[in-house]
Amino acid sequence: MPTGTRPAPNYLDEAIAAIIRAAMARKTPAVKIYQLAEMADVDPSTLSRLLKPTRIMTIQQLDAICRALGLNTGNVLSEAVQVVAEYEADKLRKTSPEPRKAVGQ
Predict the structure, then answer these.
(1) 6 domain-assigned
(2) Does 104 reside within a domain?
(3) pTM tops 0.90
(4) What CATH number corresponds to the domain at position 40?
(5) Taking all residues of the chain, what is their mean pLDDT, rounded to a whole number?
(6) Which residues form the domain of 60?
(7) pLDDT digit string (tens) for 9-56?
(8) Does any domain span residue 37?
(9) Domains in the chain: how many in total?
(10) Contact yes or no for 61/50 (Cβ under 8 A)
(11) Three-state SS string across the chain, please?
């Protein structure tokens, strides 16, 4: 990869961001981006890009964000991996040809 270029966020990044956004919304009152940014010691504009996601989150950022929300980082990753696995399985089911029936059945 050329120096200075970043890989684009993928479905796992999207799943992680969705889990974090949902956790923010579940709090009473809901946690705002600027509040979470302060709690996690992450720049608010960076956090906004991470949660869209237009930028890939580092494991350190993920851990700080999870801690700030009272989430277990491993559980968030496991849930995101499960979401991706279900998405990939669903995509395979939709693209796989139907099995052929034998003549006379």
Answers:
(1) no
(2) no
(3) no
(4) 1.10.260.40
(5) 89
(6) 11-85
(7) 899 999 999 999 999 999 999 999 999 999 999 999 999 999 998 899
(8) yes
(9) 1
(10) yes
(11) CCCCCCCCCCHHHHHHHHHHHHHHHHCCCCCCHHHHHHHHCCCHHHHHHHHCCCCCCCHHHHHHHHHHHCCCHHHHHHHHHHHHHHHHHHHHHHHCCCCCCCCCC
